[in-house]
Design brief:
The structure is a homodimer of 338-residue chains. The relative contact order of chain A is 0.12. Chain A folds into three domains: 43 residues, 434 Repressor (Amino-terminal Domain) (Orthogonal Bundle); 129 residues, Response regulator (Rossmann fold); 132 residues, Rossmann fold (3-Layer(aba) Sandwich). In chain A, 42% of the residues lie in helices and 16% in strands. Chain A is elongated. In chain A, helix 1 crosses helix 2, helix 5 crosses helix 12 and helix 10 packs across helix 11. With 338 residues, the first copy, chain A, is an alpha/beta fold. Chain A has twelve helices and twelve strands. In chain A, helix 11 links the parallel strand 8 and strand 9. Chains A and B meet through helix 4, helix 5, strand 2 and helix 6 of A and helix 4, helix 5, strand 2 and helix 6 of B. Strand 2 of chain A pairs antiparallel with strand 2 of chain B. Chain A binds a DNA duplex (16 and 16 nucleotides) through helix 2 and helix 4. Chains A, B: Pfam families: LacI (PF00356), Peripla_BP_3 (PF13377). Chains A, B: InterPro entries: HTH_LacI, LacI/GalR-like_sensor, Lambda_DNA-bd_dom_sf, Peripla_BP_I. Chains A, B: One of its GO terms (molecular function) is DNA binding. Chains A, B: Keywords: DNA-binding, Transcription, Transcription regulation.
DNA sequence: CTGAAAGCGCTTACAG
DNA sequence: CTGAAAGCGCTTACAG
C-alpha cells in the first residue's frame, strides 16, 4: 500500500493525498474526507524512508552514550532520565534511535551516523570520559543536548543537576546534626561527576566556615561498592576518622558502611554517611541510606523540550540546572534538625 | 555529499560506486581502490533512507515493551537483556529503534509502525499483560522474538528462562537445608511470570515428595516491596508459618524479610527466604538475599541470533530456554549443603 | 568490467 | 482547489 494506490482509490492525484496527510489547508472538505476515509480503511502508513528522503527530516532522535560503553542501559540514573526523555519526545512526535557501537572499528563516528540516519537531533549522555567524536558532533549543525555533559556548540545545550546545591544540602544537613569534621569518598580523578561533587563539597565546607582536612578526602577506583569499602578501610587504618562522610555515589557509601561495620564502628553513631543518587538499594540496607536524589524525570523532560526548540530554531541552546533533594533516612541519625 | 558527487570525483558512474559500496566482485581492483580512497577522504556515508527506499531493508530492529508502559527502561531485568541484545545486534550490523507510545491515541499499532520504518525485525519484551496489537505483529510476516513472551507466529520465536528449573533449584536448596514446609509469595493472578514461577514451584514440591499447603501460598498486588511486606504480614497473623519461603521477586522477598524482622522473627533461623532476579540490592541487605539469577546476557545474545536467522530465513523460529543459577547468600543459612 | 535508466514512495514548487 | 512533473539518493536488472 502506498500513496499512489490511495490516490487511485480516491480518484485524486498523489499531490492531493500528500497535502491531506500533511494538513495543508487548501483542500476541499469533501475530497479530504473521502481520502481520509480510505486511509482509515486501508490502514495506510506512509513510508518514513521516502518521506525522509524527500524532506531531509526523519523525526528521529539519536541517543548516544559517551564513553564507557559497557554501562549504557544498565546505568540506573541515565536510564531513568532517558525514560522520561523518551516519553516527552514521543509526545512531540519523535522516535528514538540507538546507535550500536560495535558495528565499525571506529565506532565513535557519531557525526556521520547522524547524517546516515538524518536524525533531527541527538541526546548525549555522559559516561566517564569524553570522546573526541562527541566534540565533532557538538560543533556540527546537528542539534544536541547533553545530559550531565556541558555541550557548548552553537546548536547545543545541556541539562544537569546542581552539584553545588547537592554539596551544600549535604553540608547543611551534617552541620545541623552537629558535625564539624567532614570527609569525602570519591571516584578517580578523571571522573567529571566525582570531581564536580567534590569541588562543590569543598566550597560548601568553606561556605559554612568549617575547616577542610585533606586527610579525610579519599578516592576509590570507580563508583562501585568495593571501592567504597577499600577507601573507607584505608581511612580507618589511618587512625584519624571524620564524624561524617559524603560519598559521591550510593554504592561508595554502602561500601564505606560495610567497612565501618566490620571494624565494629556504628553508623550513624560513630560516623554519619550520606550517599548520592538514591538508587533502589538505599531503602533496603541497614541502616537505610540518607542520600541525594536528582529529579531525573525533570531532567528528561527538560532535555526533550530544549532539543525540540533547538530543532525548530526556537532557541539558541543554553542550559538548565535542576535542583536536587536530600532524602533523609537512617544513616545520619535523627539529630537536631528534626 | 552523495553518491553522484563521489562518482563524478572518481570519474565513474553511480552504478559502479554503488557496487563498490556493496562489495560486488565484478569491479576492477584499480577503480575500486580509487573510489574507496575518495570515500575515505570525503567521509561519505550513504543515506539510510535512500537505501531503505530502494531495498526495503532498513537494518533497523524495533524494540517494543508490551504492556505496562511506565516500566520500560527502568525495569532492571529487561534493561540488562536489552543491553546484551543491543551489543549483539550491533555486531550483526543492526541498529535499534524504540517506538514512542505517546504519539498516537491508538499507540499500540505496532504493525503499521513497523511498516512505516521498514524495520527488519522486532524484539518484544514482556510486561504484565499482552496487548492484542502484539498478536497482530506476531501473526504478521515481520520477524519477531519475544523475551519472556511466548510468540508462536510463523516468523516468530522466543527466549525465556526455565521456570521449572528455577523452582526445582529453589526446592532442592530448601530440601538439602532440611526444610519440608515450603511457602510462596507471588504477584497477582494476571501476572504470567508469577504464575509460571508458582506452577514450577508446585510441581517441584510434588517432585520432591513434599506436601504442599495452600495456606502458605500468598499473593501481593505486584512485584514490589510493600506487597511482600503485606503478604508476609498476613501469613504471620495467620499464626501458621512455613519454614522456608520462595518469593517470585527479590523485592517481594525483601518486603517479607522486613515483616519478619518487625515481628521479632529471624531470617534465616526462623524462616529461610529465597528471592528471584538477583537485583543489585540483594548484596547489600541484611541478611544478604539468596536468590535466582537469570543469565540475562545469554538471553540477549540468543534473542539477537534468533532474530538474525529469522530475518535471513535461516530458521523457522522456535524457542530457547536458558538455565538459571542459584546464588547462595545469607537468607537461608549455611545448613547442610555446604 | 562499466554505465544508462527505471524505480523505490514520498514532497514541493508551479501551472492551471 | 487540483494535478503533472521534477527531485530526494540510492539499487538493480540489463545492455554493452
Amino acid at each position: 500500500m502506498n500513496i499512489k494506490k490511495i490516490a487511485e482509490m480516491a480518484g485524486v492525484s498523489v499531490s492531493t493525498v500528500s497535502k491531506i496527510m500533511n494538513n495543508y489547508s487548501d483542500v476541499s472538505e469533501k475530497t479530504k474526507r473521502r481520502v481520509l476515509d480510505i486511509i482509515e480503511q486501508t490502514g495506510y502508513t506512509p513510508s518514513s524512508s521516502a518521506k525522509t528522503l524527500a524532506t531531509k527530516k526523519s523525526n528521529l532522535i539519536g541517543v548516544i552514550f559517551a564513553g564507557e560503553l559497557n554501562v549504557e542501559f544498565t546505568h540506573p540514573f541515565f536510564v531513568e532520565v532517558l525514560n522520561s526523555f523518551k516519553k516527552q519526545m514521543g509526545v512531540l512526535g519523535y522516535d528514538l534511535i540507538f546507535f550500536s557501537n560495535e558495528k565499525f572499528i571506529n565506532s565513535g563516528d557519531y557525526y556521520s551516523r547522524c547524517l546516515h540516519f538524518h536524525v533531527d537531533g541527538c541526546v548525549i549522555i555522559s559516561g566517564q570520559q569524553m570522546e573526541p567524536a562527541i566534540q565533532e558532533l557538538d560543533r556540527s549543525h546537528i542539534p544536541c543536548i547533553g545530559v550531565d555533559l556541558e555541550l557548548t556548540g552553537k546548536k547545543s545545550g545541556y541539562v544537569m543537576s546542581d552539584n553545588y546545591q547537592i554539596a551544600s544540602k549535604v553540608v547543611e544537613h551534617f552541620y545541623l546534626l552537629g558535625h564539624r569534621e567532614l570527609g569525602f569518598i570519591g571516584s578517580t580523578a578523571d571522573s567529571d561527576i566525582s570531581n564536580r561533587r567534590e569541588a562543590g563539597y569543598v566550597s560548601a565546607i568553606a561556605g559554612f566556615g568549617l575547616v577542610m582536612n585533606p586527610q579525610w578526602f579519599v578516592h576509590g577506583d570507580d563508583f562501585f561498592e568495593p571501592s567504597g569499602y577499600a577507601a573507607m578501610s584505608s581511612l580507618i587504618h589511618s587512625g584519624d576518622l571524620p564524624k561524617a562522610i559524603f560519598a559521591a555515589s550510593d554504592l561508595l557509601a554502602l561500601g564505606a558502611v560495610r567497612a565501618l561495620k566490620e571494624q565494629g564502628l556504628r553508623v550513624p553513631e560513630d560516623v554519619a554517611i550520606i550517599g548520592c543518587d538514591d538508587i533502589e538499594a538505599c531503602q533496603y540496607t541497614s541502616p537505610t541510606l540518607t542520600t541525594i536524589r536528582q529529579n531525573k524525570e525533570r531532567l528528561g523532560v527538560l532535555a526533550a523540550h530544549m532539543l525540540f526548540d533547538l530543532i525548530n530554531n526556537q532557541s539558541e541552546g543554553g542550559s538548565f540546572v535542576v535542583e536536587p533533594a536530600l532524602i533523609v533516612r537512617e544513616s545520619c541519625g535523627s539529630g537536631l534538625s528534626r
